[in-house]
């Protein structure tokens, strides 16, 4: 009978590992295999069957010696106490809450695990084999390990695990070695005496905890410069260093040496203070599917503080000469924030300010606009600007427009936004921009992308396995949709993220971060990042985009200090103003998406437009081609209604720059490289001045004393809100501070998103309990003249209309 060939092999430590076969090994004799590297065979000190439960972490199940099925999950997968096994065999969601399907705390080889044990017969013999997944009592489906060999997708794009009938835990063998393996060598496992090609022996989970606390990068000191890089599987590391960039082609490489006590770290010391010099690294190491080493490929130091371009070279900088960012600015409390998302070039391109064409490409042009008395965002009244990525990204030329979501270095300011990249001028220019924003009362939040990298993927050439998630077949995971996903389970990947954020706070004075596709980083990593950054800046603003193509973690972030972009709010409000949705959903989102999404009020960032997809006006326009460039009167009414709801909802309101003057991308959905469509056309401020004023007045109201009932640090009392609904309509009204738990002042908001006039029954009590004064309707805030509507027991709300009243 032909022997099965190994399909996977991995190290559990430098001296031990596992070898996996495609199905349970039924033979009484152990398989004959060999371990080969660089033409030499390593002899196993021992080679035996692995315990059946050794498969549990990868497969999610095994069959014990009694024939029972055991489903197993690491407790690190979730902080939730109640976790259930759900699948084809128990109705999936129907299993939640049923004690017979709940996992119980237990141990495997002394390691804490969550376990479910039951008769195995029901799980085998089915066709097709049953699928399963782990789910919390809050109906949160837990992510699968990227290297799960039994992961399968369905037609809806969901990933599940499957019970393989010929894989029960007897497919694994464990080996030990007398001496640790050299990880810089490509090792393979193959059948002994056979010509068959082997499978690579990958470092396992232990490898991702390899780390250093030493400072990294180009470190300028007294009379010397130290170059230090973390490269845990490198066989050699060389340095190219030159005073003039052109000479890098001709210099002799300098060899770095492994530190004896930390062999994952390589360094060399060069005499002289080489501030302003240029450098690259060249790395070599194992050549197999787990690595992408190329001794001739020039690698940009991940800790380079500045770079000439996306390919490098990096620029050596003396940190002592960089200066510090503006740390004197008082970052607003989260509940007081009103955010505008914006792109550096979109703001600067057509700004009515004296600036050269080159300056308008980046930091200096935007800084000049911010310093102008007419600066648009200051006129609007927001107090926080969320800038799309400003770290070095992979546009192919300085002029090429790019959103910036393909970063190649997390420390260096974008060279395309810098006037003199070779002089590292971007550092001073970004410092000046942040300081200018602070002088205008604007906090600065940076959109940062730590879930994947652009091209060239420099980290890929330092260690593909260590820094990037891979599936069971060794292919790069791609839940970001960008070709690679960062492995935040690796200690130094997390440190790289934290170190770069600390650098951005200390060097540039930024107030916080919005993490792109934060789901891919995972809750555990986000908690670690939060703790580290709050040690540096206790009031740092931390915003998550809590999803990816893999899943959603907003609910799992409730017990953290992160707030999240609320895509449910976005989708609901787009539909609500067009007559969709329900009054119950309106109540939920206006309350601040409590409990499942937000455990505390500012834990939801409420928005209806961002850089992604169509603009608000293009998405809701009545125009048949989805082009809101020339909006209809109803488009404007719906926009005003949206603004009234957005700025009166509990949470952090965010708009996209230009949304207040009905910015349109002419119906184009994805404009990530369309600078012509994205640049703000400030002439629309004059064309739609009433809408701009409406937004500005709502923002001023929310941020002012009268708006304090909309801004909450902690969850208000149960009786704080009182809602009223019109019969047979989604028209509704809400009374703020109904129980007067926050003083005598009350607010009343009424909205009608339908195309017909409506009456909302308040009853006689509400009009009689306070002296009401109308502050705004669907067209304007009142100041002086204008007919104001009284509050009556049967409150009239016109079609696509709204009203705001204050009661004393």
Structure report:
With 808 residues, this protein is of the alpha+beta class. The protein contains 16 helices and 40 strands. The strands form eight sheets. The chain has an eight-stranded mixed beta sheet with strand order 4-3-15-16-1-2-14-5, with no helix packed on it. An eight-stranded parallel β-barrel has the order 26-27-28-29-30-31-32-33. Strands 19, 20, 23, 24 and 25 form a five-stranded antiparallel beta sheet that branches. A hairpin with a 2-residue loop joins strand 3 (33-37) and strand 4. Helix 3 (363-371) packs parallel to helix 5. The mean pLDDT is 95.
Pick out its properties.
808 residues; alpha+beta; 8-stranded mixed beta sheet; 8-stranded parallel beta barrel; 24% strand; globular
Class from secondary-structure proportions: alpha+beta
Multimerization status: single chain
Q: Helix fraction?
A: 10-25%
End-to-end C-alpha gap: 90 Å
Q: How many β strands by DSSP?
A: 40
Overall spatial form: globular
Mean pLDDT over all positions: 95
**Proportion of beta-strand residues:** 15-25%
Radius of gyration from the alpha-carbon trace, in angstroms? 30 Å
* Uncertain stretches of 5 or more adjacent residues: none
């Amino acid at each position: 009978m032909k022997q099965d060939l190994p399909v996977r092999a991995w190290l559990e430590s430098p001296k031990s590992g596992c070898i996996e076969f495609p199905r349970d090994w039924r033979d009484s004799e152990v398989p004959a295999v060999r371990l080969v590297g660089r033409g030499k065979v390593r002899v196993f000190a021992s080679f035996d069957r692995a315990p059946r439960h050794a498969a549990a972490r990868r497969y999610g199940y095994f069959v014990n010696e009694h024939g029972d099925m055991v489903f197993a999950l690491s407790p690190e997968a979730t902080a939730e106490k109640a976790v259930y096994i759900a699948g084809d065999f128990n109705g999936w969601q129907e299993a939640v809450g049923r004690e017979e399907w709940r996992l119980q705390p237990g141990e495997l080889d002394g390691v804490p695990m969550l376990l479910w044990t039951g008769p195995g017969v029901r799980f085998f013999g089915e066709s097709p084999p049953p699928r399963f997944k782990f789910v919390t009592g809050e109906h949160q489906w837990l992510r699968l390990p990227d290297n799960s060999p039994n992961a399968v997708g369905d037609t809806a794009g969901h990933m599940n695990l499957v019970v393989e009938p010929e894989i029960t835990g007897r497919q694994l063998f464990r080996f030990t070695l007398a001496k640790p393996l050299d990880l810089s060598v490509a090792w393979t496992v193959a059948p002994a005496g056979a010509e068959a090609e082997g499978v690579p022996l990958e470092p396992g989970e232990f490898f991702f905890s390899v780390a250093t606390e030493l400072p990294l990068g180009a470190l300028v000191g007294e009379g010397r410069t130290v170059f230090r890089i973390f490269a845990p599987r490198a066989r050699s590391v060389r340095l190219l260093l030159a005073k003039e960039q052109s000479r890098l082609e001709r210099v002799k490489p300098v060899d770095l040496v492994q530190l004896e006590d930390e062999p994952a770290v390589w360094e060399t010391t060069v005499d002289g203070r080489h501030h302003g010099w240029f450098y690259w690294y060249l790395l070599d190491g194992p050549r197999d599917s787990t690595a992408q080493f190329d001794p001739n490929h020039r690698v940009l130091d991940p800790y380079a503080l500045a770079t000439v371009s996306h390919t490098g070279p990096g620029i050596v900088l003396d940190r002592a000469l960089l200066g510090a960012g503006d740390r004197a600015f008082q970052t607003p409390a989260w509940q007081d924030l009103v955010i505008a998302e914006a792109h550096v070039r979109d703001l600067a391109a057509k700004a009515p300010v004296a600036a050269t064409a080159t300056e308008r490409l980046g930091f200096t042009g935007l800084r000049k606009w911010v310093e102008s008395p007419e600066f648009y965002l200051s006129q609007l009244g927001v107090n926080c600007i969320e800038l799309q990525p400003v770290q070095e990204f992979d546009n192919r030329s300085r002029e090429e427009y790019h959103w910036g979501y393909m970063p190649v270095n997390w420390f260096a300011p974008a060279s395309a936004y810098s006037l003199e990249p070779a002089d590292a001028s971007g550092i001073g220019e970004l410092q000046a921009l942040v300081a200018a924003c602070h002088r205008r009362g604007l906090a600065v939040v940076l959109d940062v992308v730590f879930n994947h990298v652009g091209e060239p993927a420099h980290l890929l050439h330092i260690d593909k396995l260590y820094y990037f998630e891979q599936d069971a077949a060794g292919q790069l995971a791609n839940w970001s949709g960008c070709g690679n996903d960062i492995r935040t389970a690796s200690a130094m990947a997390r440190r790289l993220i934290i170190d770069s954020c600390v650098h951005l706070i200390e060097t540039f004075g930024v107030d916080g971060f919005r993490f792109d596709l934060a789901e891919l980083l995972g809750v555990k990593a986000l908690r670690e990042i939060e703790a580290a950054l709050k040690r540096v800046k206790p009031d740092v603003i931390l915003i998550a985009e809590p999803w990816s193509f893999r899943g959603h973690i907003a609910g799992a972030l409730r017990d953290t200090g992160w707030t999240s972009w609320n895509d449910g709010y976005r989708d609901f409000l787009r539909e609500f103003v067009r007559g969709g949705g329900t009054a119950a959903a309106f109540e939920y989102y206006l309350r601040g998406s409590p409990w499942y999404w937000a455990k505390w009020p500012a834990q939801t960032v409420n928005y209806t437009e961002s850089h992604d997809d169509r603009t608000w006006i293009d998405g809701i326009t009545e125009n048949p081609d989805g082009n809101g460039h020339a909006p209809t009167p109803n488009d404007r009414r719906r926009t005003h209604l949206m603004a009234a709801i957005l700025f009166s909802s509990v949470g952090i309101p965010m708009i996209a720059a230009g949304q207040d003057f009905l910015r349109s991308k002419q119906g184009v959905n994805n404009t990530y490289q369309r600078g012509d469509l994205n640049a703000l056309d400030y002439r629309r401020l004059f064309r739609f001045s009433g809408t701009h004023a409406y937004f500005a007045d709502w923002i001023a109201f929310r941020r002012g004393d009268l708006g304090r009932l909309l801004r909450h640090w902690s969850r208000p009392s149960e009786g704080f809100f009182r809602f009223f609904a019109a019969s047979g309509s989604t028209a509704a009204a809400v009374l703020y501070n109904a129980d007067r738990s926050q003083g005598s002042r009350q607010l009343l908001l009424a909205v009608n998103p339908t195309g017909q006039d409506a009456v909302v029954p308040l009853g006689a009590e509400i009009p009689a309990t306070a002296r009401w004064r109308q502050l705004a309707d669907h067209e304007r805030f009142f100041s002086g003249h204008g007919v104001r509507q009284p509050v009556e027991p049967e409150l009239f709300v016109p079609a696509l209309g709204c009203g705001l009243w204050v009661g004393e």
